[in-house]
Amino acid sequence: MTFTEFEQSLKSKAPPRGLAPALAALWWAQKDDWDQAHAIVMNEESPEAAWVHAYLHRVEGDAGNAAYWYRQAKKSVASGALAAEWRAIVTALLGEG
To answer: pLDDT averaged over the chain?
Structure first.
C-alpha cells in the first residue's frame, strides 16, 4: 500500500483489512478517534506501536507520557506539527520513508 492509497482509505468507515496495528491506529487517529487508536497500540509491544503511542500522547497534550513512549520506540521526541509527524510515521511504516 502506498501513502496515497492509505490516505484514500480514510474515506471508508473502517481501515483496510490486514493493516499492521500501528498503521490501523494511525488510521483511526486521522479519523479523530483517539480512543480507538490508543486501544490498538496500548497492548502492542513493537517499536512501531510505541512510536504511534508516543504520537497519540502528543496529540493528547501529555508530553511526559509521549516522551516515555518515544524512548520505548528509540525515537527522538517530536516537536514539529502533528500533521507532519503523522505523515512521517505513516510513510515510514509503509516503507516509503
So the answer is: 95
Distance CA 9, CA 27 (A): 9
Contact in structure between 36 and 12 (CB atoms under 8 Å):
no
Reported as half-sphere exposure (CB side, CA atoms, 13 A), residue 64 has a value of: 0
Residue whose C-alpha cell is 504511534: 52
Could you give the dihedral angle defined by the CA atoms of residues 41, 26, 90 and 17, in that order, rounded to the nearest 10 degrees?
90
Q: What is the mean pLDDT of residues 6-34?
A: 96
List Cβ neighbours of 49 (8 Å cut-off, separation of 6 or more): 21, 22, 25, 40, 41
